[in-house]
User: Which sequence fits this backbone?
């Protein structure tokens, strides 16, 4: 299955797109310590290597705010049901675009994290002395911008920004997971690639496909069954019916 920000919405983690998403409006004019404040910014102001080059402090402020928000969140029923499926069935694999760790905290097995983790950092200069990524769960982080403990250069969040390649191992594991009999796409706008392409791959493989989402997405017309509803309720009902 492929999951996106909608799976964490009921936990209080803001989605990116949609009416309540982080990138849904440019009109709010409050300080960026609230969702409304951050809505002034576009994806290209915050989630690209160019944005980080231009203003690392702004980008880090956004990530520090998201880390603080997410640290206060707990996995919801959608995470719990998905985790239970992976515990019961080792063939059930979860490919997530989410960087929030809530699938991990729910106990999900066989998890592929396509876009990295908000709780990991890497050296912006990719210095030879530092590991590829390292864990840093401090909330708040040292202001304004954390540095590489090995070379003193800027550290960056170990997430995948627009225009950056995904980890080849994660892409391979996701492609492997898409070679399945049943493929679910849950709580994702299905608008970001290559993540969205795994549904196409599953269809080519002959999988039965289903979507669970509050709204219609580009995936809705492609799947065998599109269920419109909140993931935490739909998954709970499916689990209760077993
Ligand atoms: C609920 C709900 C509830 C709410 N229940 N549902 C092919 C075609 C076109 C473009 C491209 C292409 N291939 C590559 C591109 C370019 C680009 C791309 O996809 N652009 C599109 C936007 C057009 N892709 C890339 O740049 C990727 N890199 C790449 O391809 O590199 C190639 C390369 C090769 C070699 C050298 C160099 C480069 C990288 C993409 C990285 C995406 N990064 C982000 C930020 C991650 C870090 C962070 O979080 O800060 O990932 S962007 C953002 O979008 C984040 C998400 O993981 C991702 C997907 O969002 P998601 O999860 O779908 O959330 P939303 O908000 O969009 O949707 C939420 C949904 O939930 C909605 O539908 C709601 O209705 C629903 N919902 N509540 C059920 N309770």
Assistant:
């Amino acid at each position: 299955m492929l999951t996106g920000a909608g799976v964490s919405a009921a936990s209080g983690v803001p989605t990116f797109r949609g009416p309540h998403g982080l990138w849904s409006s440019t009109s709010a004019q409050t300080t960026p310590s609230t969702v409304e404040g951050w809505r002034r910014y576009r994806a290209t102001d915050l989630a690209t290597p160019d944005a980080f080059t231009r203003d690392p402090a702004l980008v880090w402020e956004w990530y520090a705010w998201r880390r603080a928000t997410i640290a206060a969140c707990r996995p919801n029923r959608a995470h719990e049901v998905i985790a239970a499926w992976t515990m019961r069935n080792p063939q059930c694999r979860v490919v997530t675009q989410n960087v929030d760790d809530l699938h991990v905290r729910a106990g999900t097995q066989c998890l592929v994290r396509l876009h990295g983790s908000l709780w990991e950092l890497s050296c912006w200069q990719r210095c030879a002395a530092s590991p590829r990524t390292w864990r840093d769960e401090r909330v708040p982080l040292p202001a304004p911008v954390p540095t590489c403990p090995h070379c003193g250069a800027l550290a960056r969040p170990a997430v995948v920004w627009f225009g950056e390649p995904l980890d080849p191992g994660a892409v391979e594991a996701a492609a492997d997971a898409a070679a399945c009999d049943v493929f679910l796409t849950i709580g994702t706008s299905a608008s970001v690639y290559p993540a969205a392409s795994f549904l196409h791959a599953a269809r080519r493989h002959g999988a039965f496909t289903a979507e669970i989402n509050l709204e219609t997405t580009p995936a809705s017309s492609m799947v065998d069954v599109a269920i419109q509803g909140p993931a935490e309720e739909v998954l709970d009902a499916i689990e209760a019916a077993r």
Remarks:
- The chain has ten helices and nine strands.
- The two ends are 18 Å apart (CA to CA).
